[in-house]
Amino acid sequence: MLRLKTGFISGMVILLLAVMAGCGSKTRVSDETADNILDEKKALENDFAVALIDSSRAVNISDLFKRINASSMLRSGGILDSSTYFDTLQSIILDTIISLEAKNMDLSRDFNLYWLYSDRFRSLYIEYLYRKLILDSLKADSAQVDSFYLAHPEKFTLKEQVHIRHLMIAPAKMKSGPDSALYWGMADAQLDSVARVQIDDLAARVKAGEDLGTLARQYSMHEESREIGGDLGFIGRGMYILDFEKAVFALDSGQISEPFRSNDGWHIAEALERIDSGLVKLEGRYYDIAEKDLKTEFARNRSLFFIDSLYQDAQFEFNDSALMRPVLEVAPETWAATVNVNDTIWFVRLPIMFADFQKQRGLDSLSLTDKHEAMKIIARPLLIIRAGDELGYGDDEEVVAQKQELWDKYTRAMVIQEGESRGYVPPDSLIEDYYNKNIEKYIIKKPVKVQHIIVEDSLFGEFLRDQALSGIDFLDLAQEHYPGAQEIRRAAADLGYIGPDEMSPEFYDAAMRTPVGDISHPVKTEWGYHIIKVLDKKLNLGLDQVRGEISTLLIEENAKAIKAAWRERLLSKHNVTYFLDKAARLNIASLKERRK
Fold it and tell me: What is the C-alpha to C-alpha distance for residues 30 and 186, in angstroms, rounded to an integer?
């Protein structure tokens, strides 16, 4: 059994030895250490703890393998020692501690999280009640389905349509295909002849028994359908050009066409299924559709009846003094109404709800009566949930489990948000301090990139400048005219980025005055006359220019510091014991194998 420090150091020693032994080649595992390398199968045969929290909550090797398998660590597979998987183990431990801390959190203390929890639970509970009270009890016999079918002919009257798959060879696309070089010199008539030969050959293969869909994936030039075997789905009249429509609607179900021409190329088409126009027979999937639609109608009617009955006995009390004020001026946690004494509608929901109600009703503004009406609609879920509780559904195992799962989720969020930075704005003094301490980032020591040529007199310098401005490459001129050995002339002429201390003041001042891309007139220094080509300039950045950038950086640093302190605080509240010697080295499968 090892404590953190011992396990970490031993892991680092193992890692260092592995690196020293490797030196670019694979590390060979001796027979002596092979038994200490665990693969997942071997580890799970006897699942054991790799860490223990507060002497009671174990983190097992199975938990570690599960987290590693879900990550991108060692994409190609290989050996992880304890030092390299330690951060992953720590993340599992932190998650476990967050769950332990969450059990002591009172979610009702956080208005926003509690509202999110309540709203999500209401939605799930209402879905459950709808299924239990409405859907599960719906029955529709064949006579009722038949009556529904006859009463709604518009739902079951179809236009003529045919399910088509096809293969197309398009002369116009042959010049851009994989064999385009063969066709560039061909006229349109020649291309059409080649396309006809290809489609005839493919038609012969279909007649010999090859599958049209398979051939379409290989050869079809219809990009929209090639990858799905040429399948166009069901098509109706008027959806495609007339030549194509005429050919495919002439096919019987299961029939394959002879090659035919349309404006976009040569085709072979197969009619997989036909549907004639008119009222479909009430059988198969159309019976299922009619039955489903009938049950939906039953469910709607029953739901409305159920909700109406709830409203008849409902008691509302409205906070009119708050409701008479503009909704955005009222604090979100203010109560707007109570429903049957026990349930409350809060103002947090009202801005969006009132806006939707106003839009649906086409109102310019909402009167107090309108607001009452809107809140009665908002109260509908509360009435349904209260009815479900009175009928005992709130104690159902599924509902209780959902409620607990959501409670755990949002209490964990309470713990996690303690480590989040919210609304932090760095003061100007801190931004200025950062700028001054990191001034080297913003003051460019070498601001100008130059090339130059040294000559003996200014007239010749002007001549070279004119040649360079006419289009002759500057470094080619330097190769010919720069003083010194020819093999170093280009390198000597190209100075790169320079600062004020690297050249004479006359040279540097001329370079800074010359626009980027331009060439200076001859400048005299102790070395002679220089013509200077300016390639680039970097300007110093003032505080106002980088204030936003520094502010963002400080916000990120503050967030990291808060999260690190929160993490340390959580870990310090719990005693964590590690057993890294039991899983010193893990043999990890490749990412591809893990995700099979």
Answer: 68
Residue 454 has pLDDT above 90, yes or no: yes
Q: Sketch out the chain's domains with CATH numbers.
A: 4-103+576-594 (no CATH), 160-276 (3.10.50.40), 315-378 (no CATH), 444-537 (3.10.50.40)
Other beta carbons less than 10 A from residue 326's beta carbon:
7
Structure tokens belonging to residue 212: 């049209």
Angle between helices 368-378 and 380-390 (to 10 degrees): 40
**Distant-in-sequence, close-in-space partners of 538: CB < 8 Å, separation ≥ 6:** 444, 446, 447, 448, 497
Task: Tell me how many degrees the CA angle 496-488-513 measures, rounded to the nearest 5.
Answer: 30
Give the Cα-Cα-Cα angle 102, 107, 110 (nearest 5 degrees).
120
The average pLDDT across 178-197 equals: 85
Q: Is the pLDDT of residue 540 over 70?
A: yes
- Check: CB of residue 510 under 8 Å from CB of residue 519: no
Question: What does the pLDDT read at residue 88?
Answer: 94
**For the residues 544-565, what does the mean pLDDT come to?**
95
Give the gyration radius of the chain's Cα atoms. Answer: 39
Q: Which contacts of 73-78 are long-range, i.e. CB under 8 A and separated by 24 or more positions?
A: 73/588, 74/588, 74/590, 74/591, 75/590, 75/591, 76/590, 76/591, 77/587, 77/588, 77/589, 77/590, 77/591, 77/593, 78/587, 78/588
Rounded Cα distance between 42 and 583, Å, is 11
Whether 64 and 88 have beta carbons less than 8 Å apart is answered as yes
CB 353 within 8 A of CB 378: yes
- Residues 104-134: tens digit of each pLDDT: 999 999 989 998 999 999 999 999 999 998 8
Q: What predicted TM-score, i.e. pTM, was given to this entire model?
A: 0.59
Q: Is 145 left (phi over 0), alpha (psi -120 to 50) or beta?
A: alpha
**Model confidence at 1, in pLDDT bands (50, 70, 90)?**
very low
d(CA 317, CA 344) in angstroms, rounded, equals 10
**Binning pLDDT at 50, 70 and 90, where does residue 35 land?**
low
CA–CA separation, 291 vs 312, rounded Å? Answer: 32
In this prediction, residue 17 carries a pLDDT of: 31
What mean pLDDT is predicted for residues 574-586? Answer: 92
Tell how far CA 588 is from the center of its chain. Answer: 27
Q: What is the DSSP letter of 520?
A: P
> Residue 234 and residue 575: Cα distance in Å, rounded?
66
- Name the amino acid, one letter, at 331: A
Four-CA torsion 564, 567, 571, 576, nearest 10 degrees: -90
| Confidence (pLDDT) at 576 | 95
CB 520 within 8 A of CB 451: no
**80, HSE (Cβ side, Cα atoms, 13 Å):** 27
Asked if the model's pLDDT at residue 347 lies above 90, the reply is yes
C-alpha span between 465 and 481 (Å, rounded): 12
- The span from the CA of 384 to the CA of 310, in Å, is 8
